Input
Amino acid sequence: MAYILALLFLIGIFGIAQHLYKQKRKDSVKQMLEIATHSATSSVAEKKDDSPTERLLRKSSKGVVLAAMLDKNILFKALAIIFVVLTVQILESLEILVLSQTMKVLILFIFIASIILLPNRIKNMIISSRVKRISEDLPFVIDMMAVCVQSGMTIENAIRYLAVNTATINPDISVLLTRVIMKMEVSGMSEALDMLNEEVPSQEVRMLASTLQQSIKFGSSVYMVLLDLSKEMREMQLLAIDEKVSGLAAKMSLPMIVFIMFPILALVGGPGFIRMVALWPS
Output
């Protein structure tokens, strides 16, 4: 066991040294890039491995920020593994915990797999739940946009108004609309809607972006189009709920067989079986 711990300790030290070396190289490259112009640095900053949805939701979700930090922090993972190994060793030396060699290896393997795989899974789960919430609340926001347009606002002013007033309803939608406004001020409304269509993997968001694109392109009245769009989204959500409800019958068949059918069979056939056993010659 001592050889295994020493080997794990050396692997951890090697990982930490490699991480520090890479971090030092990144800092030197960052210092070199700071000499360039602001436009060059902004273009380099856009080239990241993170998805656009993750970069967007980081502004409104601390869970995404924490999960992404744990997923990419190699130093933290190495220190956590070393801490667990040393903790198990200390508990064994104090005779508080007694484990076999196989159990120690199994615990170490489970912990390493968890610390490597779980942060990314948790991050993806948070992103999926946030995108789902955006899709669920979007019909209400579209109704508000239609009311703003009917009152005399332009689409641009309506988006600015909603970006401020939807922060208490859904912070993710507020951040999304704020990003659309920033892109719209730089590149125009058309490119801002294209960015909206690409960044959020939601059918409802893409429907909204394409509807506004068609309204801008063909100059059609957007009030009734927005009302029809929100109605269509609600119908899609109701169909999804109906589909889930219809699938409950198949999912509930197994629990009903296990927890209802078998007890009923025991209650009905139990007394007769007991009488048969009583009549058997001993």
In short: The two ends are 58 Å apart (CA to CA). Residues 35-48 have pLDDT under 50 and may be disordered.
